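Morning F.,

Quick status update on the modeling queue. The single chain you submitted on Monday has been processed. Sequence for confirmation:
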Amino acid sequence: MTENNIKSVCVYCGSRLGNKPYYQELANSLGKMIADADMSLVYGAGSVGLMGVVARAARDSGGEVIGIIPEHLDDVEITQEGLTELHITDNMHERKKMMFDRSDAFIVLPGGLGTLDETMEMMTWAQLSLHKKPIILINYKDFWSPLVELIEHVVSDGFASDEHGKLLTVVETAEEAMELLKS
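Structure tokens below.
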């Protein structure tokens, strides 16, 4: 895809900060880069964790930030103030579908079970030919190496094709992820 085709990027990441400061630095850098590239950020609408960091960085850099949160998490994740758009859905399924519909590409930062769920769902949808949107995993400081190894294991043991194993593009930095979206 060319830069003109990628107008919005969904970022999947943790609703916690993690226990290493470089996770926050990575989220902050990515948010700024998305805004600087004139792309909209689509994310889970929370003000907590890496979600909040990436959203505030994009917002504070003048970017459009679209938050989508299910009603039951609105109080728990403390919805971020100052979003360009806020959508409150009835449930997680509606949230994930709306995030998908509003995005031209996906970037995965460090996160927990929800981040894993969202990433696997986008890979599965791509495997089923429901989309051809880029899915980029930032394996910063090897955070996602166990997941990358698991996907390789699934392919090597014959439960997915080589082609399906390549649905996830793995990079090491936010700069590499953004360069891919621009090329």
